[in-house]
Structure formats: structure tokens, C-alpha cells
Amino acid sequence: MQALTLGRAPGTIEVRTDVPVPRPGDNEVFVEILYAGGNPPDTYVLDPVRSAAYQHPDNVMGSDFAGIVRESNVSHIAVGEKVCGWLPGNATTRGSFAQYAVCDADLVIRCPDDIPMEQLAALPFSFFTALHGLVCELNVDLQSGNKGPAVLVWGAGTACGQYAVQLLVQAKVPVVAVSAQSSLESLQRKGVSAAYPREDIPQTCAAIRESWPDLELALDCFGSTETVDACASVLRRGHMHVLVPSQPSVSRPEVKVTFALIHSMLGRPTDVLGMLPVPPTPEKLAADYKVAVSYASFDRGHLYRLLRQGAIQPLPVQIWPLDGTAEADDSLSRLSGIKSAIEQAAAGQTPSGKIVHRVGTST
Ligand SMILES: NC(=O)c1ccc[n+]([C@@H]2O[C@H](COP(=O)([O-])OP(=O)(O)OC[C@H]3O[C@@H](n4cnc5c(N)ncnc54)[C@H](OP(=O)(O)O)[C@@H]3O)[C@@H](O)[C@H]2O)c1
């Protein structure tokens, strides 16, 4: 099949036509990819140091997808169903920048009929990263309906941050959000308890300490030295989880700092987990998988219900190419388009926001 893979030379990527078509195993579905969403980690492949743990030329790139089930090894997902999900793209031979992919049937989500598939193609990786950070790492209770302790979401304007906010708000957990000044009003409309600008970090930290002196939980979705320091400085004590590997520059033993990877939600070891100082134990992999399954599971998990209710709303997306030039009409040209999109994003030349690629030619 045609797919975008890592190149033979570290730090390169390649459009290929000779990638074996994956075959579905037990409890798996075989999906024709229609749309695939881009994510920041796709650009890490172009940096041989950052992607050192998973440099194999047969690794297929891309994590997010929406597509049509063409073969199913489970009775409750029929051939022809529209599904979205995420794959351990870039780091394994399972990726979404390809004509076809195989996915654990318990980790796909049915596409609600009233939500465009291209929007759903950019949701799973960010949504499940947010879910993983909140539930698997910070142990936030999203299910009981009890108003838990407030959670600081720094970088609430990132895709992961926006899904973290939505998850917390629908669970009635108070949210203290930090984002660009321009998005504070929209965060307030979404139901956060308080929203602060990210532009003036010292002033924002002072305001948070003043109004939220008992904060004990933080999710830093941006993960720069400045944001990690800021989060650590406003927690009285407790736990902050950072989505990129970073530590505050000043250690505060009363604040636990963790970094983890969404890949532990696959429930089994993958090479990329070797990047972690302490890879997850089999028990932790099983526990994280259980959380993922409780939200995915086609139309039986929480996410399908939350999407139908409008409690989780997919983020707006931009379809590549962004300049409105005519879209290529075959998969190979589209995969070449994804390659240039990743190269441009790595060079900082694409605007922020979710970018989705049309991959398949079916409708
Ligand atoms: N650990 C994992 O398993 C995992 C999985 C997925 C992603 N990640 C990582 O998580 C991070 C977020 O990913 P994403 O896809 O959500 O990112 P994203 O949506 O591409 O983030 C872009 C947004 O970041 C915000 N931003 C820019 N500068 C900022 C700053 N100085 N402080 C705070 N926010 C700033 C901007 O929003 P505003 O202008 O509205 O503030 C911008 O729109 C990435 O570094 C990614 O690599 C980790």
C-alpha cells in the first residue's frame, strides 16, 4: 500500500508504495483511512535526536484517523461503519498517513452521523492524551459527578488543553485555565471557573496564588521551562503532569512532577515507551488501557455518548492544502502533500490549529 514512512536516513521521511497492507488480528478492525490529522509529534521524526528511540524506516507516520471499516474481527462493528481513533504512528508500523490501518477494535470510536469525519480525524490523539493526563496520571475523577478539587490547565489553548477543559467541565470539576488573552472569553463561555492570560507569567501566577491558594493539581499542556516553573510555583503541594519531558528549574519536593506518554493506553509495551525514565509496568499498562477502552469501545464508551450530547465538541480543523489550491485527487499525491505539510510545520511555517489531510479517495 501507499504510506508515508520514516526515511532510511535518520531525520527524513519518505512516501512509499511498497508498504505491506496490514492484516487485522483478533479483536481488530481493518480501516480504509479517509482523513488523517496532524499532531506536533509528527514533526519530531525530522529531528534524529528527539526520535532516537523509534528510528525504523518501516514505521508508518501519523496518529489520528477517521475512515471506513473494511474488515472486522468483532461482531459489534460491521463492515462499512465509520470510525475514528488514534494509532502509535511514527513509532511503530501502525500509522494513519497510509491507505489502510489496523486498529484495536476496543480503541476505535464510532463517528456520529452529524459530525464531519474530517473534524473527528483530528480529535482522538489530543483527546486521549488529555484523558490520560487527567485520569491515568493525576487521578482526577471524571465519572462520579462529585465536584473534585480544582485542576489548573496551563496551555488551555493547545488541542490537548482544550479537550482537558471540556472533559473537566462536563464532569463538573472546577478548572483554572491559562491561555492566550484572545481566548479567555471563549474559555469562560465553555464553563471554566477562572481564566488567566499566558502572556504575563509573573502576573498570572500572582493572581492564581491569590485566588486559588489551595491548588494541588496541574496539567501543563505546553511544557516549556517557563510554563513548568509557573505551574510548580502556584501549587501549594500535590502533583503536576507535563505533556512534554520537562522539569521545573527549582525543585519543590512537595510538588510531584510527572511526564508520560499516551502510548501506555495501548495496554502493551511499544518502543517509544523506552523514552520514559521509568517505563510503565504491566499493571499500569493494563490500568491505562482500561481507561481508554471505557471512553472508546465504538459506540459503547463515554466518548461516543459525550459527542452525541455535544458535551465534547471537536475542535475546528483546517484541511490541507491551506492556501485553497486544488486538492490532489490520488492517495500518492496526497501523501506527498502530508510530507510537505510536516516539513513546513517543523520549520514553523504553518499556523497553529488542527490540520487534517484527506488520504483516501472513497466517500
Ligand atoms: N505525552 C504525550 O503522550 C503527548 C501526546 C500528544 C501531544 N503531546 C505534546 O503535547 C503538546 C501539546 O500538543 P497539542 O497537539 O495539544 O498542541 P497544539 O494544539 O499544536 O498547540 C498549539 C497551541 O499552543 C498554545 N501556545 C503557544 N505558545 C504557548 C505558550 N507559551 N504557553 C502556553 N500555550 C502556548 C497556542 O494556543 P493559544 O495561543 O490559544 O494559547 C497554540 O495554538 C505538544 O508539545 C505535544 O508534543 C504529548
Outline the fold blueprint.
Layout (H helix, E strand, L loop, with lengths): L2 E4 L6 E4 L11 E10 L2 H5 L19 E9 L9 E5 L13 E5 L4 E2 L6 H4 L3 H14 L13 E4 L4 H12 L4 E5 L4 H6 L4 E4 L3 H11 L5 E4 L4 H10 L3 E5 L12 E5 L22 H14 L6 H8 L7 E3 L11 H16 L7 E5 L5
Parallel strand pairs: 8-9, 8-11, 9-10, 11-12, 12-13, 14-15
Antiparallel strand pairs: 1-2, 3-4, 3-6, 3-15, 4-5, 5-7
The protein binds NADP nicotinamide-adenine-dinucleotide phosphate.
The site of NADP nicotinamide-adenine-dinucleotide phosphate has 25 residues, from helix 1, helix 3 and helix 4.
Protein name: GroES-like protein
GO molecular function, one term: oxidoreductase activity, acting on NAD(P)H
Organism: Acaromyces ingoldii
Short description:
It comes from Acaromyces ingoldii. Helix content is 28%, strand content 20%.
